[in-house]
Amino acid sequence: MTVLARRIGDVQLEVVVADITTLGVDAIVNAANASLLGGGGVDGAIHRAAGLELVAECRTLGGCPTGDARITNGYLLPARHVIHAVGPVWSGGSRGEAEALSSCYRRALELCQANGLNSLAFSAISTGVYRFPADQAAKIAVHTTIDALPIAPSVARVIFCCFSERSAALHTDVLARYGSPC
Ligand code: AR6
Questions:
Q1: Which helix (H) or strand (E) holds 65?
Q2: Boundaries of each Macro domain copy (predicted)?
Q3: Could you give phi then psi for residue 101, rounded to 5 degrees?
Q4: What is the pLDDT of residues 39-93, one digit of tens each?
Q5: What gap in Å lies between CA 49 and CA 168, rounded to an integer?
Q6: Are 123 and 111 in contact (CB under 8 A)?
């Protein structure tokens, strides 16, 4: 369900409430851990829906540091690719958590550009098991994405895929201040 859609230049940005494994975009962004070998939450849902070939490809990557991201195929998912971003574990906010979370969004957009991708959907990285405060995370997600759009001119559509109405409201509050309705 689309909650809000805004246009900034040639790019459409949307807040939707959905299960990210159902979205037919060029890439969905997973909230992974540093092993890249799967886990619970959205990571577990993506691995279940993609099938075992996904974890087989992830094993070849040798993990990923916090704040960075890696791209794989999407296998049985409707999405062509999965971008596995490793968000920070929240530990009070003074250990570089905001910078690391921001870096996840920027790195995902860089990977889209490097692979010529047009559409991507972000999960709300770090806001579940990793306990990043959802309001602060939504601000970082939207602000970083908008700031980084110039580094990813291949991208024409960005979805902030929220799993709850509350998460969607937090993203909507920030995104509504930008661009024009579409
Ligand atoms: N579609 C969209 N969003 C979802 C879905 C889904 N199917 N399922 C959950 N979410 P989390 P984290 C939302 O805990 O905090 C894993 O075990 C959820 O409501 O999945 O970055 C990894 O392996 C929340 O808003 O990721 C890591 O070990 C958001 O996704 C660890 O959890 C992120 O919650 C990463 O923790």
A1: none
A2: 1-179
A3: -65, -45
A4: 999 999 999 999 999 999 999 999 999 999 999 999 999 999 999 999 999 999 9
A5: 23
A6: no
